[in-house]
Amino acid sequence: MPNQFSATIGTPAEVAGNLRVALMRMVRRLKRETDGEHSMSVIAALGSLNSRGPLTLGELAEAEGVSRPSMTVLAASLLDQNLIAKEPDPSDGRLVRVHITHAGKRVLERSRTRRNAYLAKRLGALGSDELRILDEAATILLRLVEDGP
User: Fold this and answer.
1) Sign of the CA dihedral 144, 62, 89, 42?
2) pLDDT in tens, 89-122
């Protein structure tokens, strides 16, 4: 199996294996860079609400890939911490939507800043060619995630 120092490009299956391992290790490492007070589930839910706007708990559960009962428990905790707030659905008064609060945005921003600082420090040890490659790879990875199931 070729590695990053090999001139030979591996098969899609070999690249997939290497990429999966690298991404999983990076995700685990970034999880350790949260503030210690808030879990990655909290940060992910806040991020979804920040980017998508007010959502029902069912929509938020689907966006996060968790069950509705799990999201109900998480949302109750976020409500207690004033990180999210409830609002009536403007088109259907029977529905309730949740949105991120200013406090939630501050928590999300602190978490992002901390994780970005960790990555920036690590990337600072790389040369310009490697940084360019990683920048291009990030664009490709985003396209892969956004274009397909």
Assistant:
1) negative
2) 888 888 999 999 999 999 999 999 999 999 999 9
User: In this structure, are strands 96-100 and 84-88 parallel, antiparallel, or unpaired?
Assistant: antiparallel
**Residue 5 pLDDT:** 52
Please give the Cα distance from 10 to 131 (Å, whole number). 21
Beta bridge partners of 87: 97
If asked whether residues 125 and 89 sit together in one domain, one would say yes
Task: Mark whether 45 and 7 lie in a shared domain.
Answer: no
pLDDT band at residue 1 under the 50/70/90 scheme: very low
pLDDT for res 34: 72
**64 CB burial (10 A radius; 0-12, 13-18, 19+):** middle
Paired residues of 86 in beta bridges: 98
Q: How many domains does the structure of the chain reveal?
A: 2
DSSP-assigned letter for residue 85: E
**Which of these, 74, 68, 67, lies nearest to 40 by C-alpha position?**
74
